[in-house]
Amino acid sequence: MKTLKEFLKYSETYLGIATALVFMLIFFCVWMTAYNGVTDRTNHLKIGLVNEDKQIGATLEENLKKNLPFDVKTYQSIHAAKQEMNQRKLDMVMEIPESFSKDLQSKGTTDVKYFINQANSSLAKQIMNGTAGNITQAINGNVYNYKQNFILSHLSGQMNAVIPSKNLSQAISNNIAQALKSLTIDSVHSSIVKTNNTDGFPATMVPLLVVLASFVGSMIMSLNLNGAAIKMRQTFDKWSIFLARQIINIGASVLLAAVTLTFMAIFNIDLKTSLLETGMFQMLVYFSFLSLTQMFVVLFGPAGMLFNILTMALQLVTSGVIVPKAMLSDFYQTIAAYFPATYVADGYYTVIFGGVRLSGDLLPLAAISGAALLVAMIRVLFQKNKSLVTNPIEQKKVQTVQ
Predict the structure, then answer these.
(1) Where is each ABC-2 type transporter transmembrane domain found (predicted)?
(2) CATH number of 45-195
């Protein structure tokens, strides 16, 4: 009990309890509000439709655009649609081939192709896989009705042609029998192609792993560096301290990028980008996180950790790793553009799954890092230099007091 009472005398004890409480409150508030109504916004997901068949395909295209609960955009070529999917503007591409009607009439069966982008959140991939099966079922229903109407319209002409014949009943029976045999409910088959695919479940978790591990590590590092910087103010100029912190941040970013690439090689995770490009990207990932977390602790001191915890919760929600950004509310979609995790996740989808170039994510990360450094520098500008202690004996006294 004496030990317990002694613990309760220190403010750090209550600070630790408060931090744990605030951590839980922030995550509950952010995640529950961000994910509220997500299932009602599936219509924000986008499907590209390429219709190369001008007969039945034209009717199917009209029905799909009218009835599908998604944003459906038509394309003239499969190449153009795939390009936009690689840029993560589409979640799936559906192709009705040119031979669709011809194959139905000559073979009785045909295929519809679905291209599902694997460089996407798990939820989006699951939804698109289920949607492909549902679309095929709906198409089969439409084709079944088309076949019935087609057979009936041709059957009457055939009957008129054979009425004068003595073998009328036999001819009619044969025609009807052949027509009924051709009526199969599953005339259309789905062919699903997983684009930008990679083998192994661990690889799919890399974007989430990097976002979470990098930001948590950056928070702790920034807090400790800030504590060291406060102790150094008695003996060093504020700008030399700030410059030294940035050198440490850059050095840590290079080291951690090398460690990350090493572990990815150890676990046999194939890179779809060059080693140099991936290394530069990973270095900028850590530096952007360090710059952001540093900004809050420079502005508010240790209390800045509350803002860092808040931004971590926001970034995990809005990065698009767990739930597609398109399914979030407008508020969370807007703030996603201002956080580095959004571009970190997109960049790692490119690194792991392929698709577009990394330059589209490198530039926003550099801009966010620059903005965070600028804010921190403005705050340092208004800080006062404490009296510098140059005497070694006095310096030791100051450090002893601290």
Answers:
(1) 19-377
(2) 3.40.1710.10
